[in-house]
Amino acid sequence: MNGMKKYKFLLSFIFVVMGIFSLTSCEKDDDEAISSTLSGCWQGVLSTTYYDELGLTGEDYITVFYFNQTSYTGGTGYELDYDIYSPHSSSALGYFRWEVNGTTIHLLYNDGTDAYIYNYSLSQNYFSGVLDDGTDRNINFRMKYLSDFDVNSFYGYNSAKYLSRSVEEVPMIKGKSIILRDSLK
Questions:
Q1: In 10 A of CB 64, how many CB atoms?
Q2: In a domain, 177, yes or no
Q3: What is the tens place of the pLDDT at every residue in 154-182?
């Protein structure tokens, strides 16, 4: 009888441990699936107003997020904000690393600022949620998947070449840089 109790205890313990490992792997699988769906280019309007150091406001800006998946749950990318009325003369560009962790997407911009996306909904065609950039205002967004967008063709040149050596970065609240097209000539 005593041997039977030990056997039941051991069997119960094995099932509990297996259950814990299976739940952990499901969460990792979910993060991988979200990362895979998130990978690509998304465009939409952020519903908030922000002011950068040059006095430009965000109320008339379109935002493009590009997520390049480089690992199972994260990667690199950029955020491009531009004025819908003069997209090539007033724009902000910020590069970041990103990672999916459960129900949160963490963005770490190259200037060291963080942003978090939560309460999001993600499908093959739409991405919506709340962006918390640490400024005590939540930024709601709704974006549509873009099948083709290239920041280089947006600016009409190889932006990486110019950004790496000749553009002075002007910090913005959300960790982006203002790139004025006229300053690149």
A1: 20
A2: yes
A3: 555 444 433 332 333 333 344 444 434 33
Which helix (H) or strand (E) is 147 found in, with range? none
Domain range enclosing 151: 36-184
Strands (E), the chain: 40-47, 61-69, 74-83, 91-101, 104-109, 114-122, 126-132, 138-146, 177-178
Residue 62 lies in a domain: yes
pTM, two decimals, is: 0.65
- The string of pLDDT tens digits covering residues 84-124 is 666 666 678 889 999 999 899 999 999 899 999 999 999 99
What's the total number of domains in the chain?
Answer: 1
**CATH code for the domain of 175:** 2.40.128.280
Contact 94/177 with Cβ under 8 angstroms? yes
Pairing mode of beta strands 138-146, 126-132: antiparallel
